[in-house]
Amino acid sequence: MSPIPSQQVKLLLRFSAVCLALCGSQLNATAAEVLTAPSRILPASGTTWCYSIGSPQPSTMTLKGVSAGIASYAIDGPGAITRIEEQTDTYTSVNATRHGQRKLLVFPLAKHRKWSDEFTEDLTSHLGGDAEWQFSYHAISQSHVIGTEKRHVGAGTFDTFVIERKIAWTKSNPHSSSKLLQPQKCDDADCTVTGYSKEVYWYAPSVGRAVLRAYSQSGDSDFIWNRSPDELLSNASSLVTELVGYGRAASCEDLHPPLHARVPSAPWYGFPLLMNDTWEFLMQRNIAPE
């Protein structure tokens, strides 16, 4: 199968820096100690998390402060925006256009806990330069804490909760004022696409964030939702984001190599393989912030 387009790699780089809502696998893993997380506790302001998707330069998130349940982070990395805000109790980026709730985490975390969420929001995607476009995103998600695990990553070894998240989504109403995207057209009158995603987070309460995340999407729910954490982590169509440094900002200057991080080397199953000039193609290939 063909590799993903270079502009999609740029999207993945941007996405990894902004939406590392990173939140078992048996690969390099053993059973975690008895693990509890009655609430989410963030470390001191100034703490930095260094994340990699396999590129030479990691993306960094530095906690600037927490106020009224909202954490602010400064972001530095390939193609990344400079600042994001996150709801501390749900591990979810703030979006003023969101209707409904997006909940990546629900506390207290415990094995077998399940929850669901549904929301609609407007999103902006960047293709480089002034190629910026917007679309509406609707998602229905089911999350499940499938267990706990001692997970080895570039930044060290952490006791984690393993959380599976299955998402059914639609994307619609694409538009842009960018000259580069003026030739884009809709293949169908409703200009809407439907897809399915699955992600697994290895969330470490000791650092207040996930240390590993595997994500893939497909046009076929059975194909993607039935994958185990091991299969998702090793699959060629998965985006895998990994913590490779933690603590002081300087910790990102001398990093251990990632053990798992990488961008997809194969296309997502169930979507067109060849790039075309339709909005549907861009929406299918875009990773929404799940």
From TrEMBL:
Q: Which domain of life is it from?
A: Bacteria
Signal peptide residues on this chain, from the entry's feature table: 1-31
Q: Which keywords appear in this protein's UniProt record, sorted alphabetically?
A: Signal
**Could you tell me what this protein is called?**
Uncharacterized protein
Q: Which organism is it from?
A: Paraburkholderia bryophila
